[in-house]
Amino acid sequence: MAAATNFRRVYSGKKVLITGGLGFIGSNLARALVALGARVTIVDSLAPEYGGNRRNLAGIAGRVKVHIADVRDWPRLPRLVAGEDFLFNLAGQTSHMDSMTDPQTDLDINCRAQLAILESCRLHNPSIRIVFASTRQIYGRPDHLPVDEQHALRPVDVNGINKIAGESFHLLYSRVHGIRATALRLTNTIGPRMRVKDARQTFVGVWVRRLVEGEAFEVWGGRQRRDFTFVDDAVEAFLLAAAQEEAVGEVFNLGGPPPVTLRRLAELLVEINGGGGFVVREFPPERKQIDIGDYYADDRLIARKLGWRPRTDLRTALARTLEFYQRELRHYV
User: What's the whole-number average pLDDT of the chain?
Assistant: First the structure.
């Protein structure tokens, strides 16, 4: 990982809290921080609808503290945030469809709980450094490509609206209360430890599972262009954002290698897998209503201010992901 020496100086011996830390990005971040000598504490609800999985800590479980707790349990939050140097706030409900069928739960997790976390920090640990996991979903259907941070925010689902609120709370508390927070707007993140049970986290997980199980997968539409960030690159962005004062109060897009159509992504997966198949279908009506069409990010701001750029090409990202699930799938289904 780039800047590893600097990261060790920043994080070694420091107390780091990761909400959603048994999930996909959170657990990969925990692994990186443990390697850097940080004292890592994880908070995760392990709710079955979300991405938490104890297997994600294989090899480091004895080197982290884990609290099975829900960020909606507000009375527990002050004790969890007190004394921590860094908070990587990745707890969230990520399913766009679930947000439309159960909007109250999405509101509770992605909005109300975020405000409660920040209030706990303001009252019990105002010097903590926070990086919040936001999403490209808040932009909605792009007016122009690539999408920069100045693009209008017009989400197409309840999840996007609540993520705007969660992000806005972090920026407000940074500006008004001096809680040093940064928001990263993530694009499609892929890699080892992502949820593959269903498409609640990413459709790529379902594709990978079907391939490894020897079954054909479905591609809806197929013409949409998307960019993909490999999880190791996303982890580096979180570490950079927390380590650099220039990032305080800022919002940054994350991007990936050049965008591809979903059909080309499917072809590439099958090619790397050495076999398999897929079927292109029209969008189910309920999904078409909230599909954003083409999306890929303009990530020049984070490159200029923090020096971050995606380092992993798409073929390598897919190959590493497939290799992981060819070995580990039984722990993730």
Answer: 94
What residues contact residue 129 under an 8 Å CB cut-off, 6+ apart? 85, 86, 87, 180, 181, 242
Look at 12-21, 93-102, 141-150 and tell me which has the smallest mean pLDDT. Answer: 93-102
User: Which residue matches tokens 């999930």?
Assistant: 23
- Report whether 139 contacts 148 (CB < 8 A): no
Identify the structural domains of the chain with CATH numbers, from first to last.
4-191+228-255+296-312 (3.40.50.720)
DSSP state letter for 283: P
Tokens of 298: 């303009």
Q: Hey, which residues does 154 pair with through a beta bridge?
A: 140
Contacts of 151 (CB under 8 A, 6+ apart): 139, 142, 143, 144
Other C-beta atoms within 10 Å of 78: how many? 15
Nearest-angstrom CA–CA distance, 84 and 58: 24
Structure tokens at 59: 């090899």
CA distance 55 to 330: 10
Q: Token pair for residue 149?
A: 């941070």
CA angle 131/32/248 to nearest 5° reads 20
* Cβ neighbourhood burial of 149 (10 Å; 0-12, 13-18, 19+): middle
- Average pLDDT over every residue of 257-286: 92
Tally the residues of the chain: 333
279 to each of 203, 221, 222, 271, how far by Cα in Å?
14, 10, 10, 15
